[in-house]
Design brief:
115 residues; mainly alpha; Multidrug-efflux Transporter Regulator, Chain: A, Domain 2
Length: 115
């Protein structure tokens, strides 16, 4: 068995790397849970705990308080909430515009035929 000697900087760097690995594992595990705590919801969404708490206070985000104190979140509901107000791509907008103008053109030609 080899003995490894590390200086303080190397030990600090090693501890930092281990904490990063642990944080990634915790994020992966929390993503598997269906019900999340405030802290887990913050890590899952990337939104600060204080802002999530503000959103719950204004009833702007779906959440649960089974005992009236501790806040929980349903992961699927968070996903839906995160995906609200979708912004259309330029291609989708252009397609809608083409569809709208072609329908408008059909109505005009139909009006001319009925006169």
């Amino acid at each position: 068995m080899a003995i490894v000697i590390m200086n303080e900087i190397e030990i600090s760097q090693h501890l930092y790397e281990q904490k990063q690995v642990l944080a990634r594992i915790e994020r992966l595990l929390s993503a598997q849970k269906e019900t999340l705590t405030l802290e887990e919801a913050s890590a899952y969404t990337g939104i600060s705990k204080s802002y999530i708490y503000k959103l719950t206070s204004s009833n702007s985000i779906p959440h649960y308080k089974p005992e009236g104190k501790i806040i929980y979140f349903d992961r699927d509901e968070l996903d839906c909430w995160l995906k609200r107000n979708r912004i259309k791509t330029n291609d989708e907008i252009e397609q809608e515009a083409r569809s709208f103008t072609s329908k408008k053109g059909e109505k005009k030609s139909h009006l001319h035929k009925t006169r």
